[in-house]
């Protein structure tokens, strides 16, 4: 539908304008030098409903790298190609309450199985499980899945990849540890190449809103009318997003926003809003996907203004799954 016939658009613009001022409370990620170049005042949103209704506002069209949002997709792809039991033998489903790049629990809990696929240790392991022998083939399987969902071939931002490759000392340490404990199904450099390239896949808010929408509909693409991945994979993925998707702020996010979401340090937040049963008329009753971009991030690595905007929308539209 044409966004102009949708009254929410007017107040969405006002909300984006309001929350943009809060971008000053955070800053762009600096540990990946190329991410520092982003404009910290940017804030954009895209909401897509299953009938194709779209609301777009602010810097919705800006491209950014997926970073940790890619962890959702590599988990789905690994489950699709290897089967859920195989993947869960190598990565657990438990939240940690630790920062995303934490190494501490790997040694604390023998035999060093990563706690979940949404923290780096788990995600690097999952990347190594993607199908194919080479890093290229593994990435290809991920790109095919993304293309099926967003309808266009994803591109990798080589500058961001190279920038992180040179500074990925902690991820390298995680990968070496995982190699030693036998959880990594690739050599360290190859696993890092897959992981860091998947993090460097470029998207905009519309792309991640679509993925959020497909997750909301349990793997079914309501616009293309095609089941992209099975319901049981979608359920597992959403439960991980809810419990671990916003890193060590996931508890507060569940309490105050109450939706499965996944953030990345580049400032993207992908949210999945399942259909809701209500007697009164409410926006997006049949669920929606929400993509937000705001590169100024907080101490946890989540978009400062993006989370505030999302909280406002979730409260106004009564979106919490609880
Ligand atoms: N590529 C980033 C890293 O591994 C992704 C982290 C994130 O988005 N939280 O450090």
TrEMBL record:
GO terms for molecular function: glutaminase activity. GO terms for biological process: glutamate biosynthetic process; L-glutamine catabolic process. InterPro entries: Beta-lactam/transpept-like, Glutaminase. The keyword Flavoprotein does not apply. It comes from the Bacteria. Its EC number is 3.5.1.2. SUPFAM superfamilies: beta-lactamase/transpeptidase-like (SSF56601). The keyword Acetylation applies. Substrate binds at residues 68, 120, 164, 171, 195, 247, 265. It catalyses: L-glutamine + H2O = L-glutamate + NH4(+). Keywords: Acetylation, Hydrolase. Homotetramer. Belongs to the glutaminase family. This is Glutaminase.
């Amino acid at each position: 539908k044409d966004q102009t016939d949708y009254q929410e658009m007017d107040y969405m613009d006002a909300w984006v304008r309001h929350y943009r001022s809060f971008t000053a409370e955070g800053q762009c990620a600096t540990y990946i030098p190329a991410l520092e170049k982003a404009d910290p005042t940017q804030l954009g949103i895209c909401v897509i409903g299953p009938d194709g209704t779209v609301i777009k506002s602010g810097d919705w069209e800006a491209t950014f790298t997926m970073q940790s949002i890619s962890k959702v997709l590599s988990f789905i792809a690994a489950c699709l190609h290897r089967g859920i039991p195989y993947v869960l033998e190598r990565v657990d489903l438990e939240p940690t309450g630790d920062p995303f790049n934490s190494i501490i629990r790997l040694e604390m809990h023998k035999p060093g199985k990563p706690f979940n696929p949404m923290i780096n240790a788990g995600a690097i392991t999952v990347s190594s499980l993607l199908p194919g022998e080479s890093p290229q083939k593994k990435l290809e399987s991920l790109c095919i899945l993304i293309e099926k969902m967003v309808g266009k071939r994803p591109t990798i931002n080589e500058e961001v990849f190279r920038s992180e490759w040179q500074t990925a000392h902690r991820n390298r340490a995680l990968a070496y540890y995982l190699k030693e404990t036998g959880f990594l199904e690739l050599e360290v450099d190859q696993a890092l190449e897959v992981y860091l390239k998947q993090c460097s896949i470029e998207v905009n808010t519309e792309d991640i809103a679509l993925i959020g929408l497909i997750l909301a509909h349990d793997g079914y693409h309501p616009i293309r009318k095609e089941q992209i991945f099975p319901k049981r994979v979608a359920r597992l993925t959403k439960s991980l997003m809810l419990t671990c998707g916003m890193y060590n702020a996931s508890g507060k996010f569940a309490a105050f926003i109450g939706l499965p979401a996944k953030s990345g340090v580049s400032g993207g937040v992908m949210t999945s809003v399942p259909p809701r049963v209500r007697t009164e008329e409410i926006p997006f009753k049949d669920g929606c996907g929400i993509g937000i971009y705001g590169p100024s991030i907080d101490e946890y690595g989540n978009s400062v203004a993006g989370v505030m905007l999302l909280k406002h929308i979730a409260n106004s539209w009564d979106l919490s799954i609880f």
